[in-house]
Amino acid sequence: MSTRRAVGAIDQGTTSTRFMIFDHEGAVVAAAQREFRQILPRPGWVEHDPVEIWQTVETVAAEALAAAGMTARELAAVGITNQRETTVVWDRTTGAPLANAIVWQDTRTDGICEALAEGRGIDRFRARTGLPLAAYFSGPKAAWMLTHVEGLAESAAAGRAVMGTVDSWIVWNLTGGPDGGRHVTDVTNASRTLLMDIDTLDWSGDLLGAMGIPRSMTAEILPSVGRLGTGTGVLEGVPISAILGDQQAALFGQACFEPGEAKNTYGTGCFLLMNTGVRKVPSTCGLLTTVGYQIAGREAVYALEGSIAVTGALVQWLRDNLGVISDAAEIEPLAASVEDNGDVYFVPAFSGLFAPHWRSDARGVIAGLTRFAGKAHIARAGLEAAAYQTREVLEAMQADSGVALTELKVDGGMVVNELLMQFQADILDVPVVRPRVNETTALGAAYAAGLAEGFWSGLDELRNNWREARRWSPAMPAEVRDAYCAKWRKAVDRSLGWVGQASAADGV
Description:
Elements: E1 6-12, E2 16-22, E3 28-35, E4 47-48, H1 50-68, E5 75-82, E6 87-91, E7 101-102, H2 110-117, H3 126-129, H4 138-148, H5 152-157, E8 161-165, H6 166-174, E9 184-186, H7 187-190, E10 196-197, E11 202-203, H8 205-211, E12 220-222, E13 225-230, E14 239-245, H9 246-253, E15 262-266, E16 270-277, E17 288-293, E18 301-308, H10 312-320, H11 331-336, E19 345-347, E20 365-367, H12 375-401, E21 408-411, H13 418-428, E22 432-435, H14 440-452, H15 459-465, E23 468-472, H16 478-495, H17 501-506
Parallel strand pairs: 1-5, 5-14, 9-12, 15-21, 21-22
Antiparallel strand pairs: 1-2, 2-3, 4-7, 6-8, 10-11, 13-14, 15-16, 16-18, 17-18, 19-20, 22-23
Helix pairs in contact: 9-14, 10-12, 12-13
């Protein structure tokens, strides 16, 4: 076992970046977090500044180490977890980004996806990738950049321009940038691009060709768990030993190592993953077949995933756009101030609907408004939307896998909301369980990195670290649950078809 004291994790999310330090028991030693700008140039467009993201990584790493009273050399390893499909292009010689990153929520590539699907449907590449054709994924985002970012295609042809998901951008900078930085990614992030063959775990020449992306732009695909470089700068000399996309990291942090084990993460969006082992389970119910993780030298472990675009982001929207609350923590007492939703239903299809619908033509609706309804009912409907969407995904997952879930492990920022967690248990009719360490995304990245470096001996030791903190059991009568769900389905129907084909293709 390493004599070093702890393991670090870079958790680069959609709205903020964190650095967390964990001890051998998986307890938090120290943490630091910084938000960064959300750039919204047009309706449906969401961008990030890659330089700002990298600056937040450097800042929070230094702050967390200072808070722990540690030097970087006392870390046994650092793991990286990241917002997944968000796509960055940069110049490998100068290190400068060639455009803002296009965020996973962005819908500007609807037209590209429609053109690729024409005559063949959105499942054209599903057998190869496990994914439908959707604006969510990275490949179409890179294709859009190559067409619309001035000089990018020429730079790519000359071998200077490279692309990657945010993990690639961070690792490249962390291991030296223009001075020897490694251009790599892992199998979990690569499986979210629509460019990787999910069987061979390598880039597909056919898929790259279909989207007009030169292979020279792509990163080397590595296992999720294993040494991939050594840190520079604020993390000078630290082994960089794991990369996991954020939802796969949460699966790892929740110790869901056996087929049939599942978790749901409530963050900006909501993501339900079920481990299916070394078996790839094709979905017929609108879910994604994705790579769960791969330990170096072993077979990849796969998962079924249901991706929901907007959950925690709806709380932010109620705060920032409507002014219903002034702080996210106010949402629970406001929602709890009324007995029920007042027959109000909120479908937050701000970027279309993801699983299991995959409807980019949907947009957000608030249905059932009367003069009786107030801001508390809208707040409650906003929280309940996360639970309804999770139920839709879980029903699809059970149909695809043939496994009936007996309990749901939950994590992420929203699970401190006890009103939501009780409603989730009620609407699912299964217990909902929160672990001792709520931020399992960062914990999963730390576990993976520490496992690679011998800080932990194996998966059994990680499983023994897991502790239950709170459990919510269902208490809602079946007839009430059925009535709520029927109204939710009516509200979803009313969100569909809002964006016409021409305007979706134009991104307006």
